[in-house]
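Weekly puzzle thread! Below is a chain. First person to post its structure in token form gets bragging rights.
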Amino acid sequence: MKKSELEDGMFVITRDGWVAMVVNGKLISTKSWDTLEYYNEDLQSIYHFSKCDIVKIYSIEHTQGFDILATESFIAENGKLVWERTE
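Winning reply:
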């Protein structure tokens, strides 16, 4: 999957386990946010911080306002795995 294919409402999980929702070109979580400008088209950190590389992407059919509080286990149980990095 490519960065350009990400859609608002999708959830990403980074190599270090950070879970964030894609919203208007940003990755938003309960504790922080990041911009997709910090990722290359292959969803890897442009600063070569491998722990920040996106390794999984999920879609969830019915997102609610509190989905941003979701954990990786919630996403895995309630979402559909769209893409997973293979190395």
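Puzzle host: Confirmed. Bonus trivia for everyone else. The first strand starts at residue 11 and ends at 14.
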